């Protein structure tokens, strides 16, 4: 097609031509857009900075006395980390719904960019938000007495696992965001998912205190495996509470990694496929 | 050579629990290179759906289409390289500045950093947004947003430009400004497919107009050809006192062909006539005899509003409603 050739000529010397370079470039441009948004939208910064501080202080100070656990703060922190980064992943849901409503997805879809770029940019944005949240939470946790008792590797391993899990979960939320009709719906829908997901787990209470039905759910909840893994890696295990005798929590690393891989394998292709057909109205 | 060709496009939605919606019902369209094709119709006529199919946003249920000779269904990515799209929602990122928006679009066309920046600066100047270029778009007026959105469609100087209701929701002054911008664009030979529900807009900007209703083209031609289809002149008088309407109606009825129509304001009456100037003379004389005072009187050629009424049997009544809705969402 002569038209196409002309277009290529016009793009000049700095043009990005190889498919791989274009994919990276598109992903970076879409990511940059979300990073600028984090900087310019005060709501996001408040959520990112203040909410983690609030959660750490509320839970550690309010519940500690009532819980029959020695050093509840150490027990709690991995749970707070997990809950906060999972909540942080919902930005992808509301942002995709909002972009769809604003029609900017239509603009992106009429550009010759990679189909996955907008999603990659969006989920990277969540990763950035969650990274900031993690730093804030760890600093706040340190003040209220949380310590990593293993090694630097345990520390980085735990942080990496938490962020990786939240990243995979961002794709789940992105699909949800593209599937609902308005950004308001996504907020309600995500709370319906997030609260049971994070509360029916070992994040805030020892699982053996739960009623049977909930205990079974909690044992198989990947969030429990995530929290258990983080506790092990940070050395926040409490000798008075050995993990329940379920396979998933005895092998938390395998369970949580399997969960992460499964989420990515299922939801990345579904998201990309969905993105290729969505349009405003 | 036809740069846009659509043959028998159908788009059928089947929402659960309701009847099937034929958003497009066998739409045929050909647009020669270098012309401005107007696609005129009320809300829900299928204009936006047609644009979405041609710009690769949605797949038609049936039919085929090419843009610049490229099949939009089989090779959407190549189509995207040669088109520019500006929609009715001003699809810009609110949190980015005007410059950042345009630079982002250039980068996503893979122009490279330097070229994207150069082109963004050029467009900002062309659209007279230099003073605002480093402010987030969030603070822009409706007219400025549309300009940035249109500028985004022009980043690569596309061969074919799709403008989907470019002035819906704009105030009259911004609309005139937008028309000037579009007129300038088309003077350098870009092919444009312009959808609008404003009949005047199609008359002003388009070389050829396709009137669309119920998902298909119901009439085609230049503005003059379409007007000729309903032919004849009309006499229109505007009274000073609405209380004279009854008497004036009788006078008009005597000299016109068919029933005179009274506008919503109750003071403007019109009637189709055969010999315009002669009928006007009689009408004015009789109104004067009856001491009916006039604010305005004259012979009117048919407008596209009349064409639309004639062709579809209903007025393009959703104009107003759609306009206000847009205004609200634009805030």
How would you characterize the overall build of this protein?
The complex is a heterodimer of chains A (281) and B (331). By secondary structure, chain A is mostly helical. Chain A has one domain (21-275). Helix content of chain A is 75%, strand content 0%. The longest helix of chain B has 16 residues, at 172-187. The radius of gyration of chain B is 23 Å and the shape is globular. Chain B has helices at residues 47-54, 76-82, 98-108, 113-126, 142-153, 172-187, 199-205, 223-230, 245-255, 276-289, 304-312, 318-330, and strands at 2-13, 21-32, 36-40, 62-67, 70-71, 83-86, 160-164, 191-196, 208-213, 216-221, 233-239, 261-262, 268-273, 294-300. Classes of the chains: A mainly alpha (281), B alpha/beta (331). The interface between A and B is large, with 38 and 44 residues.
Question: Layout of SSEs?
Answer:
The complex is a heterodimer of chains A (281) and B (331).
Chain A: H1 2-10, H2 19-40, H3 42-63, H4 72-88, H5 90-102, H6 104-109, H7 117-143, H8 152-179, H9 183-199, H10 212-220, H11 222-234, H12 247-250, H13 252-275
Helix pairs in contact in A: 2-7, 3-4, 3-7, 4-7, 4-8, 4-11, 5-7, 5-8, 5-9, 7-8, 8-11, 8-13, 11-13
Chain B: E1 2-13, E2 21-32, E3 36-40, H1 47-54, E4 62-67, E5 70-71, H2 76-82, E6 83-86, H3 98-108, H4 113-126, H5 142-153, E7 160-164, H6 172-187, E8 191-196, H7 199-205, E9 208-213, E10 216-221, H8 223-230, E11 233-239, H9 245-255, E12 261-262, E13 268-273, H10 276-289, E14 294-300, H11 304-312, H12 318-330
Parallel strand pairs in B: 3-8, 3-9, 6-7, 7-8
Antiparallel strand pairs in B: 1-2, 1-4, 4-5, 9-10, 11-13, 11-14, 12-13
Helix pairs in contact in B: 3-4, 5-6, 8-11, 9-10
Outline:
The complex is a heterodimer of chains A (281) and B (331). By secondary structure, chain A is mainly alpha-helical. Chain A has helices at residues 2-10, 19-40, 42-63, 72-88, 90-102, 104-109, 117-143, 152-179, 183-199, 212-220, 222-234, 247-250, 252-275.
């Amino acid at each position: 097609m002569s038209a196409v050739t002309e277009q290529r000529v016009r793009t000049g010397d700095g043009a990005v031509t190889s498919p791989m370079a274009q994919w990276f470039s598109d992903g970076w441009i879409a990511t940059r857009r979300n990073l600028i948004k984090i900087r310019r939208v005060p709501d996001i910064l408040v959520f990112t900075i203040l909410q983690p501080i609030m959660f750490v202080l509320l839970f550690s100070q309010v519940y500690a006395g009532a819980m029959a656990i020695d050093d509840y703060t150490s027990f709690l922190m991995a749970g707070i980390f997990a809950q906060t980064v999972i909540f942080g992943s919902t930005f992808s849901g509301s942002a995709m719904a909002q972009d769809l409503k604003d029609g900017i997805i239509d603009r992106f879809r009429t550009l010759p960019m990679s189909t996955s770029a907008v999603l990659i940019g969006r989920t990277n944005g969540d990763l950035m938000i969650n990274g900031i949240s993690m730093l804030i939470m760890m600093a706040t946790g340190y003040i209220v007495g949380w310590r990593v008792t293993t090694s630097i590797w345990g520390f980085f391993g735990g942080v990496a696992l938490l962020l990786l899990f939240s990243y995979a979960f961002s794709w789940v939320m992105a699909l949800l965001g593209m599937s609902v009709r308005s950004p308001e719906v996504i907020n309600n829908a995500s709370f319906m998912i997030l609260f049971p997901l994070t509360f029916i787990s070992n994040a805030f209470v020892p699982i053996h205190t739960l009623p049977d039905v909930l205990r079974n759910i909690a044992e198989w909840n990947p969030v429990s495996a995530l929290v258990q893994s983080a506790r092990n890696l940070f050395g926040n295990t409490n000798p008075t509470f050995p993990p329940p005798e379920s396979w998933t929590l005895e092998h938390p690393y395998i369970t949580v990694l399997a969960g992460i891989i499964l989420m990515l394998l299922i939801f990345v292709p579904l998201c990309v496929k969905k993105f290729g057909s969505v349009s405003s109205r | 050579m036809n740069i846009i060709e659509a043959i028998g496009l159908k788009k059928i939605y089947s929402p659960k629990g309701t009847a099937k919606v034929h958003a497009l019902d066998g739409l045929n369209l050909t647009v020669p290179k270098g012309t401005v094709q107007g696609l005129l119709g009320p809300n829900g006529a299928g204009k936006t759906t047609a644009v979405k199919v041609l710009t690769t946003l949605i797949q038609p249920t049936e039919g085929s289409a090419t843009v610049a000779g490229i099949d939009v269904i089989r090779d959407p990515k190549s189509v995207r390289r040669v088109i520019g799209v500006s929609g009715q929602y001003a699809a810009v990122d609110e949190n980015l500045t005007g410059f950042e928006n345009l630079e982002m679009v250039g980068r996503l066309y893979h122009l490279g950093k330097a070229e994207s920046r150069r082109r963004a600066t050029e467009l900002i100047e062309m659209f007279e947004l230099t003073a605002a270029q480093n402010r987030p778009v969030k603070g822009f007026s409706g007219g400025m947003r549309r300009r940035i959105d249109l500028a985004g469609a022009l980043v690569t100087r596309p061969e074919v430009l799709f403008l989907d209701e470019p002035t819906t929701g704009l105030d009259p002054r911004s609309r005139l400004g937008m028309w000037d911008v579009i007129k300038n664009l088309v003077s350098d030979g870009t092919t444009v497919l312009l959808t609008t529900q404003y009949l005047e807009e199609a008359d002003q900007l388009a070389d050829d107009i396709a009137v669309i209703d119920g998902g298909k083209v119901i009439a085609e031609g230049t503005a003059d050809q379409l007007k000729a289809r309903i032919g004849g002149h009309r006499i229109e008088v505007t009274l000073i006192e609405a209380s004279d309407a009854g008497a004036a109606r009788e006078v008009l009825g005597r000299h016109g062909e068919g029933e005179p129509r009274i506008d919503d304001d109750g003071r403007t009456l019109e009637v189709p006539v055969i010999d315009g100037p002669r009928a006007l003379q009689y009408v004015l004389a009789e109104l004067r005899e009856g001491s009916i005072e006039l604010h305005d009187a004259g012979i009117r050629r048919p407008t596209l509003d009349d064409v639309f009424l004639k062709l579809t049997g209903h007025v393009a009544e959703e104009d107003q409603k759609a306009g206000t809705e847009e205004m609200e969402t634009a805030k």
